Amino acid sequence: MNFEENYPDSSSSVALAARAGNLETLKWLVSHQGKSIESQDNRGWRPIHEAAYWDHAECLKFLLCHSNTNVNAYTFEGQTALWIAADNNSLEAAKILLEAGGHVNLPNNEDVAPLHRAASKGFKEMTNLLISNGANVNLTDYGDYTPLHEAAIQGHFTVVEALLSNGADKTVQDSHGRTPLFCGAQSHSCQVVQLLLDKSPPSLINLRAHDGATTIMLASQSGCLQCVQLLADLGANPNLKANDGVMAVHLAVIGNHTAVLKFLLSITDYTLIEQSCAVNLHNHTYHSVSGFNFGSTDLESINIFVLAVTYGRWNLIGILIEEGLKPDCFAFPINFSTAGGKWFRTLGYKWLTPLSFVLAYSPFGDESIEAVKLLIRKGLSSVIAIQNGFVPPLFALIAIATWDEDREQQVLALDFLIQECNVLRVTPKELGEVMHLALRFNLKAFQHILHLGYVPDDSIVMGAFRAVDTNQITAAHTFALSALTAAGFSTDFQTKEVYTLKQLSRRTIHSALKFRKKCFPIPELNLPLPTSLVSYLCFSDVMF
């Protein structure tokens, strides 16, 4: 049953009168018709809850004057009428309920008390009313949140001030180890942060939560530059790392907070950023974009450039480069879980350049193309020639990147790499490697390269064909040869080393039918075909 949504047919006539604030009707129903004042709807609400919610003071007084009215009656979610009044800022109703004996500290089923709700919503008068009637300012809910946590995270300065004035604990930590100052750091309210710092011991500013997070990390994540600056001025350390290796600068990148990132880069130790980018090639491989897990990676795997690409923060890539981070920050291990990655490993490649990484793992779009151009202009790309174990960018685009049906952006990137970028001009040997890659992993790229006017010689094409996975050889040959023919290339080059299309087709059909015969009985074929072909289809061995 849904305890939040009211089903109209479940409400009694008395409850409807209390909801409408119609005192005369309410009196007539109860006094003359004998209707019950304790009937409940599908949420467990009684008429007293309706009157409290809508702040109908006179109706509430009438209901409370009956001896069988329970002022502390619970709904199915454990809410009293006073709890509901506090949650909706029904001041008059709250006063009446308190005078009638409403318990100010009774929580709901999740241990959330009336003061939690008033503080969370910024109801200053309600907060003061509850406190003056004995509300415990340090009550904790199911997550060990206090009313001060609630007010701080919402940035309710006057409520925070009222709670602190009445003895709220500034040092209490919730179930995750976060103090009210942590919550204030996320609130975008410098006033709240300043007030909490003024009332708290200095050690709280760099206190760590259970996951190692600090106040300046949370402020950076929320993107409030003023809060980050205030915390830094008062001693917050931007160089601290959380348990997963994340620093404040990483969270600014993830949140796409440009101003915060620039400020943090000006006060953060670059050595620590660069150390977090270092990766041991012998025991670590890159976690793909869809599987990047901060909680389980080792401390050296949090690469700030990887984060920028992973989250598509193209506008921040230029900032990271301009700030002068060492080139070591922009080198990444290959994801060997991809087909292209496995192939690169066999060739001795271990690293991706920034440009290769963008081309291989980022979702393509106008901004990513601009990032490609930026990386080339800044000299952070590797030339296509094999060197130092780095995958050439053109290779990464062809062998790792996903080319979907709508491949306009991938084609633009390919055009740019081949035609416009001087540092990526291909030599005949390198063109052979490119054609080999394209034929093996990316037939769409193979066709487009031909359309750009690059036509390899016979030996390159034959070598590429011989390397194709035999499980895919028919489709590869058919597609590639048609593309070569369209490009004006002579396809009359088959030798005993390369199967003809006819042979390939027969071999494929033969294998498929032979497998089917093992699993299912197939009747004798009566087809208008040459005897030799019928014999072939009936699984007679055929020697190539």
From TrEMBL:
Annotated ANK repeat ranges: 77-109, 110-142, 143-175, 211-243
InterPro entries according to UniProt: Ankyrin_rpt, Ankyrin_rpt-contain_sf, SOCS_box
Xref: PROSITE patterns: ANK_REP_REGION (PS50297), ANK_REPEAT (PS50088), SOCS (PS50225)
Keywords: ANK repeat, Repeat
Record has Ribosomal protein as a keyword: no
Domain (SOCS box) ranges: 488-537
UniProt xrefs under Pfam families: Ank_2, Ank_4
Name of this protein: SOCS box domain-containing protein
Organism for this UniProt entry: Daphnia sinensis
